[in-house]
Amino acid sequence: MTLQELKKEVAKKIMLKKNAWTETYAKEGAPTDFERQTYKEYADIIDREIKEMIPESEWLTIELTGCAKGELSHYDIEDSLKEVFKPGEGIQYDSEGGQFWVYVKSSLVQKVLRHIDYHFPGQIDLNVGINKYGDNPWFQNWSQAEKFLSAQKEG
User: Does residue 98 contact residue 129 with C-beta atoms inside 8 Å?
Assistant: First the structure.
């Protein structure tokens, strides 16, 4: 199976999880304890299946965290990186309150660090560590999976 086919299968599983969540929580009235537990067990199974489907080489194992200095904004850093490194292609982004996080697969770390060093020399307090929270390197949420599947249908 190609990487593109794997992404499509992962996106489909994410949509199954979304549909189960909707059936459990987006109805009138609160779900019962049994419904919540059933959803949790189903979601855990899907999460395990997704994790098993994604090749190890695709996991976002490295976490770059930092804070912009002076007039530089974390949005400037993120926008600059996004021009070269597209989200879902070995990299994911997050930022809040001046702090930013970039989750990167190991094969891209040097390129990302070079980009940061070249474009923002001395302007970022940067830390490099292991990503302990990465769940899915391609889709951070249901919306991203939906967009991917829609694009696949159109393409």
Answer: no
